[in-house]
Amino acid sequence: KAAKLLARGMIIFMIAMATTKGLGYLYKVIITRWVATAEFGLFSLGLAFFTLISGVVVTGINLTLGKQVAFYRGEKNNEQSRSIIINGISLILGLSIIIGAILFLSANTIAAYMSKPGLGVVLKIFAIAFPFYNLFLSAQKILEGFQRIDLSVWGNIILTITKTIFVIIAIAVGGRTSGITFSFAAATAVSAFMLFFICEKAAAHIFSSAKRPINKIRELCTLSWPLTIALMAHIIMTWGDTIVLGFFRTIEEVGIYNIVLPTANLLTLPIITAETVFLPLVTQMIARQEQGEVMKLYKIATRWIFLIILPMFIMLMLFPAKILGTIAGDEFSVGSVALMIIATAMVILSLAAPANMILLSINKTKLMMKNSIIAVLISILLNILLIPKLGLTGAAMAFLAVSIVILLLRTGEIILATKSHPLSLKMMNIILAGVIAAIATYSGDRILGPHIHYGLISLISNAMILLVFYGGMLYLVGGLGEEEKEVIRAIKRKAGLGKINEQTLE
Q1: Which value, to the nearest 10 degrees, does the dihedral of the CA atoms of residues 128, 134, 139, 141 take?
Q2: SS3 of 217, please?
Q3: Which of 17, 254, 368, 384 is most buried per CB count within 10 Å?
Q4: DSSP states of 346-390 as a string?
Q5: Radius of gyration of the chain measured on its C-alpha atoms
Q6: Distance CA 139, CA 267 (A)
């Protein structure tokens, strides 16, 4: 039953997140196509500061908020759930206003220290958006705690579409870096109010009762502060390298790296999907003391993430320069080596993600904190050592090294704590299917490539070859277990393809 719930939830969320990721990627591509690489680099550097500070300050509180909402709902305690929501939003907004004001006042100092004159105005605009962005994230986590994954995903779609519309308007009226940044801030504010309204009406109902909420600030702070430190590894891995790159290298390199990174980040779609569906489900199982089901889902989630991520990884490894040149422009193709390295790191992180969810669901936040301190120190050290000499490639190598450390720490701790590991023989079958599909795709490109003169058409044809061989080999070598067959059934039912011939799946 639990596997079916996870499967169906992942299907809905996967489709929606693919749409969101695609639109989000399109948003950055639009900017790169219409402004200079240096201007995009300046916007990306400001966005790195904005996201890094936001993540460090409130991400742990937000994640704790969503988890505790799910826990109290598992106990059917509506008053506790309502109280944790009110206290969480109050705490997050208060911190956001304070930190936003500090960023606004220190923006010019930061710009001068980094020798990037235009950065000051960009940071001030991002500082104004700070409370709205964190209100948006809070509404998402509350919805996920109520298992309204559909509405949480719609929030992402609303934000991404709004950002895209606003940035097109900004570019059309001749806006440069500051105009693009202002369009981001305005879109964030509009989307935050829309999603909070949806959250209140569809799930939370926090204003429907005049009863004074129970004080849960101490509970939120106690559970979230070690989690906040733990999350710093991911945040610094994602944005810290951009800041170090901006300090030591040119703003053009920052721009190139910030197309390379989101291109590789497309591989995180299965990770985000599993985390959003898996964490509330596992938290409720733990509240009901269903430990056996939890560990079963741990293995299933790891296998599914790897199964989905592998064909995307193969495409990035086989055609990195063609992908970057076709999507963003030929000047971005110099980031192809960095793209391959970061893509490898993403696969490694995909294997570590379910272990992190288990640690979070059993409140091992202090252990996560210790892991992250180690990862953060290694990341900072390697970025400072490698980026000045190697630029984009150095940033990518530091990212890969930290990913390996995180995998070893997380999986090792799960093995020690539960005597369970995420690997299975079916994963070897998946790897075999991937290798054969990669060989077929590369051979197909060698044969058809000289006759196809458009990069996008070439990439689409290669992707089709890969998917056909990958799917066929998975079926032949037994890479699909019963849970994966349940996913296929769910996809076909959602697509309205009628009754499935069960024998063909068995």
Answers
A1: 160
A2: helix
A3: 254
A4: HHHHHHHHHHHHHHHHTT-HHHHHHHHHHHHHHHHHHHHHHHHHH
A5: 23
A6: 25
DSSP state letter for 419: S
Cα–Cα distances in Å, from 420 out to 294, 298, 456, 472?
Answer: 11, 9, 44, 31
Instruction: Output the pLDDT for position 489.
Output: 55
The one-character DSSP state at 212 is: P
Cα–Cα distance for residue pair 401/395, rounded to 1 Å: 10
pTM > 0.70: yes or no: yes
Residues with Cβ within 8 Å of residue 286, at least 6 apart in sequence: 294, 361, 362
Mean pLDDT of 209-216: 68
What is the H or E stretch that residue 8 is in? helix 2-34
Cβ atoms of 420 and 290 within 8 Å: the answer is no
Is-contact 155 195, C-beta < 8 A? Answer: yes
Q: Which amino acid is at 227?
A: L
Contact 470, 437 (CB under 8 A): yes
Structure-block tokens of residue 77 = 């305690």
Token pair 């790191």 is at which residue?
Answer: 345
CA distance 63 to 81: 14
Q: Which residues contact 77 (CB under 8 A, 6 or more apart)?
A: none
Does the pLDDT of residue 142 top 50, yes or no?
A: yes
Q: Which of 101, 158, 148 is nearest to 127 (CA)?
A: 101
Name the nearest CA neighbour of 287 among 361, 204, 365: 361
